[in-house]
Specification:
five-stranded antiparallel beta sheet, mainly beta
């Protein structure tokens, strides 16, 4: 079974040294404008384009979004500043920018956020820009469009599967044309270096001789009627991914019969990493013939796993030698760890929804005795892990 997360009951100190990633994610990445009659798709006045800022800082111990206050936003349309009455800037919550009006031409949205280092107090300005192109469609051509039903960001919790649904559309002029349209979806595989087809069951359509980064033989997506919608699952995206929509006009009476159009949509895995902590509620010191508890606790960003989140998971630990290797001589008595399994120099426990086997604090706590420590060393370290 793959090692999903690990931790040790020791403490590390991180001094200075941080790196940051600042990004802007829109609800809609572009807009299509029709001149006759004048219309837009999507219509930002009916469905606002919400742009969310995300700042991740590595090296400070907090893996959550560091946007804690109002950002400074500017919007340029056609190279000139756009009137602020056309958009709203949130002063709380996610501090997003909301475009309320349709764009007369392509726009460039820029966001500046001043972040302050929690230890040194040093301010750092982060800047990110997002182009929103506007394409004109005279009506004698077709264009493809991908619209998220909710969001384009994965934020899974406790390893539970998440799916994001997207709607595909063939746009003619400023409106969607649904008469005799074929929809086909693909996903980008970084090892192949190109977009790859799906099988009907949502698995990757593989070709003999090619190596894939995405998992094969497992469902990565599912499709709605006529493949007009796609639901992409989190196992199809590692950090950042892309899906492609290919629409084909199959209407024999259409001026664009047989023509195709393509749209690409980026996907972001914004899931907080799983942090496993082996806490020592009564401290790390154990006297001869004594003992102290060691508890497994798991968090994701600001979220602490609930009792039910441990269902289907396995926790375990083993002893390390003074040379920081797994100790092959660690074989404690099974009676020392009631409810746990002692095997192959490890102590482990799997959790279910059955009474007495859930992930309560008591079921995630073991008692480390003096006899469990290394014989000829002052310090003993135990390595913990999470499997699922």
């Amino acid at each position: 079974m793959a090692l999903q997360a690990s931790s040790r009951a020791t403490f590390n100190k991180v001094i200075d040294g941080v790196s940051g990633t600042f990004s802007l994610t829109p609800t809609y990445g572009n807009q299509i404008k029709s001149k006759d009659p004048t219309s837009w798709s999507p219509n930002f006045e009916a469905s606002n384009n919400i742009i969310t800022p995300t700042l991740k800082i590595l090296g400070i111990g907090d893996t959550g979004n560091q946007i804690k206050g109002t950002c400074t936003w500017t919007v340029q349309v056609g190279g000139k500043a756009w009137d602020a009455s056309n958009y709203t800037v949130e002063t709380s919550g996610s501090y997003r920018l909301i475009l309320k009006k349709n764009l007369p031409s392509s726009a460039l949205v820029t966001c500046v956020y001043r972040w302050t280092h929690p230890a040194t107090g040093q301010p750092v300005d982060f800047t990110a820009s997002l182009p929103i192109p506007v394409a004109e469609n005279a009506g004698t051509m077709i264009m493809a469009q991908i619209t998220p039903k909710t969001t384009d960001r994965f934020q899974t919790t406790a390893g539970k599967q998440q799916g994001l649904t997207f709607d595909g559309a063939m746009i003619r002029g400023g409106a969607e044309d649904t008469t005799d349209v074929s929809y086909k979806w693909q996903i980008f595989d970084p090892k192949v270096g190109d977009f790859v087809d799906f099988n009907a069951d949502g698995t990757l359509k593989t070709v003999t001789g090619k190596t894939y980064a995405l998992p094969t033989g497992v469902r990565l997506a599912s499709f709605g009627a006529n493949n007009k919608t796609i639901t992409v699952y989190d196992n199809a995206v590692i950090n950042v991914g892309s899906i492609k929509l290919i629409v084909t006009d199959t209407d024999a009476n259409s001026s664009t019969s047989g023509k195709t159009a393509v749209a690409v949509k980026g996907l972001i895995d914004d899931t907080d990493p799983i942090d496993l902590e082996l806490s020592q509620p009564k401290g790390p010191n154990i006297v001869a013939n004594g003992s102290n508890p060691m508890q497994f606790n798991i968090t994701q960003g600001d979220y602490e796993w609930s009792e039910n989140d441990y269902t289907g998971k396995k926790l375990g630990f083993y002893r390390l030698t003074a040379a920081d290797a797994k100790d092959s001589t660690f074989s404690p008595a099974a009676s020392d760890f009631s409810g746990w399994t002692v095997d192959s120099n490890e102590v482990s426990r799997s959790f279910t929804s059955d009474t007495g086997k859930t992930g309560t604090a008591a079921n995630r706590t073991v008692l480390i005795k003096y006899s469990h420590l290394l014989t000829n060393a002052v310090q003993t370290t135990f390595q913990g892990y999470l499997d699922f």
